[in-house]
Amino acid sequence: MDSRARKVSLVVVGRVLKPYGVLGWVRVEVLSENPRRFSPGSRFILEGGEGGERLLLEEAVEDRGGLRAKFRGIDDRKGAQALLGKALFVTPGELGKAPGSGMWEHQVLGLEVRTGEGRVLGRVVEVIETGANDVLVVEGEREFLIPFIKQVVVEVDLEAGSMVVEPLPGLLEL
């Protein structure tokens, strides 16, 4: 298996949208489902600084579907402006266990997908959240959209980097 397809070293949990005020606050788009992810004391790796120092969240306030955040050491509008558009990351180990018996999105990206009969469909390149269930985008000989439900995805082997699907009638047809 191509190790680049399976290696995920960081997971994006937010994105800085814009400065807020003149005291270093920023507006953040939250991309994490963990309600405690943006609690004071949380630390984030800033996009572009993957090997360096982490941002420490000092304060956070929910605001109009997003978040206003204040990070230690960012004390003016100029400092906040430097964060504009940057992603906030954590390591996969900091995510904790996925809810229920599920898996995190980054765990299925890059998995080889094949049918129970052994036909290789391709690799998972994206997970689309639809509200009802997630849908896997699999690229191979062509693009397949596979519902991520137990009736279709019958086996996931993260160690082997693969999953087995039993497609519903018509799912793999053009």
Outline the secondary-structure elements.
Layout: H1 3-6, E1 11-20, E2 25-30, E3 43-46, E4 55-63, E5 66-71, H2 77-81, E6 87-90, H3 105-108, E7 112-115, E8 120-129, E9 134-139, E10 143-147, E11 153-157, E12 162-165
Parallel strand pairs: 7-12
Antiparallel strand pairs: 1-2, 1-6, 2-5, 3-4, 3-6, 4-5, 7-8, 8-9, 9-10, 11-12
Write structural notes for this entry.
This protein has 174 residues and is mainly beta. The chain folds into two domains: 8-93, Elongation Factor Tu (Ef-tu), domain 3; 105-165, PRC-barrel domain (SH3 type barrels). Helices cover 7% and strands 42% of the residues. It is built from three helices and twelve strands, in the order αβββββαβαββββββ.
Shape: elongated
Helix content: under 10%
Which ranges are low-confidence, i.e. pLDDT below 50, for 5 or more consecutive residues? 1-7
Radius of gyration: 19 Å
* Secondary structural class: mainly beta
Into how many domains do the coordinates divide? Answer: 2
Would you tell me which CATH topology of the largest domain applies? Elongation Factor Tu (Ef-tu), domain 3
